[in-house]
Amino acid sequence: MNATLLLRITIAIILLTHSIFGMFNNGINDFGNLFLNQIGFAPYGVLLAWLIKLSHVVAAVLLLLNKYVKLAGFVTILVLIMGIILVHFQEGWFVVGGGRNGMEYNFLLIIVLVAIMYPNGFKKDKIQE
């Protein structure tokens, strides 16, 4: 079993559930219209919201297939960092408990993605002689 399999499955489930439900309950359109357009992304807020959620779906599939893991990770980390900057930072650290809608969850997802992308750390691969 690959050392990152459980983490990849877990992140894929999170990315899929965070994306797919919004596709069917108008959540993505609302995020685009009621948030992104309002903070300066108009008239592209809805398109941007859909691209973000579709990137999550693609990343989840790639993580499950264990293909292009670093690319999927980098794109998702970029989205998560932008989520921290635009949404969560102003709410503080805690998602619940000591606050609401904070950045701790995104931080955890970013660190797990880094662990998936670099399961052996950041050491350069040694050339075998």
From TrEMBL:
InterPro entries: DoxX, DoxX-like_oxidoreductase. Its main location: membrane. The chain crosses the membrane at residues 5-24, 44-64, 71-90, 105-122. It holds the Pfam family DoxX. It is a multi-pass membrane protein. Keywords: Cell membrane, Membrane, Transmembrane, Transmembrane helix. It is found in: Cell membrane. It comes from the Bacteria. This is DoxX family protein. It comes from Flavobacterium circumlabens.
